[in-house]
Amino acid sequence: MEGANTVVEQPAASPSKFPLSFWEATVASTVALIFAVGILGVYLTMPDSDYSFLKLPRTLQDLQLLRDDLESYTSDYTAQVLVGYCVVYIFMQTFMIPGTVFMSLLAGALFGVFKGVALVVFTATAGASSCYFLSKLIGRPILSSLWPEKLKFFQTQVARRRKSLLNYMLFLRLTPTLPNTFINFASPIVDVPYHIFFLATVIGLIPAAYVTVKAGLALGELKSVADLYDFNSIATLFLIGVVSVTPTLMNKNES
Fold this sequence. Notes:
Layout: H1 22-45, H2 60-76, H3 78-94, H4 100-111, H5 113-146, H6 148-160, H7 165-174, H8 180-186, H9 194-204, H10 206-216, H11 231-254
Helix pairs in contact: 1-3, 1-5, 2-3, 2-4, 3-5, 4-5, 4-10, 5-8, 5-9, 5-10, 7-9, 7-11
GO biological process, one term: autophagosome assembly
GO cellular component, one term: membrane
Membrane topology: Multi-pass membrane protein
């Protein structure tokens, strides 16, 4: 009965593939290095002083106090304030910490419209990219547990619009169809390529960044965050969003 004693060899389990490509891992490592070097550089070059006022703003009142305290440092230690701002904003975007709208307002109050918009778009894109790469590592079980229906909806929409995915992603960035934090975290799980994610983020964030940064110039006049988006602002963003998604709708009708 030799057959009864035959040991069937199981195929060796193939090693799990690292979820990030070489370039994605390079970008993620660069962002992590910027975090460390940025914080260390700011810590070593700022003068000795009482920095108890440095905290994440949660209200417009907190933001106005922070603006008042930072204005003198911005003129004398511009580079340090810029680096510190970037590190905090990217960190908040990476780990989906609420309050980046206050950071956008602060950019306008401290640096003006042109520099403020450039700064917000850069930091928001860097933070969104970090969140994208982080999700590739740990995102699937978190999303499946917290937002299963929203993830299913997003996956279905991405699959249907694969040929015009950039237009669809632009539409999402320009309109409140899905929260930006969810888009950042869910995109790699539903197979949105990074180059499309990156382009849609850079381009799609500009209109909202402009509205928010410009409002930061008149920070004292704001009564609530809701005052940022009046009817005209929301209508403009929706119009731009509809224009961006038009090629997707046309392709769907033609098919």
